[in-house]
């Protein structure tokens, strides 16, 4: 059981590091509800429960600030060039 906990810890750590690299980068998010959302990741909760987006682009307009629950996220699309570029 301990090795399973260690594996879960490593996966969460890698996922959090991945999301941290996306801060201040433009992303496209697809939700389980079928919504296509664009925006810039501003921050991520330490427990990975929410993603804070700035200038969220939705079909009904632009929302300056929003929280997206990570449980609602199907995938996050981003440009590798923009992630590797220093801000």
TrEMBL record:
GO molecular function: RNA binding
Domain Sm: residue ranges: 14-82
GO cellular component assignments: SMN-Sm protein complex
UniProt organism field: Brachionus plicatilis (Marine rotifer)
GO terms, biological process: spliceosomal snRNP assembly
Pfam families associated with the record: Gemin7 (PF11095)
Lineage: Eukaryota, Metazoa, Spiralia, Gnathifera, Rotifera
Protein name, per record: Gem-associated 7-like
């Amino acid at each position: 059981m301990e090795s399973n906990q260690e594996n879960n810890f490593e996966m969460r750590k890698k996922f959090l590091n991945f999301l941290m690299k996306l801060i201040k980068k433009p992303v496209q998010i697809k939700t389980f509800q079928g919504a296509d959302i664009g925006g810039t990741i501003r921050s991520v909760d330490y427990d990975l429960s929410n993603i804070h987006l700035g200038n969220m682009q939705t079909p009904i307009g632009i929302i300056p600030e929003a929280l997206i629950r990570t449980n609602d996220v199907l995938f996050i699309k981003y440009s590798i060039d923009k992630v590797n570029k220093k801000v």
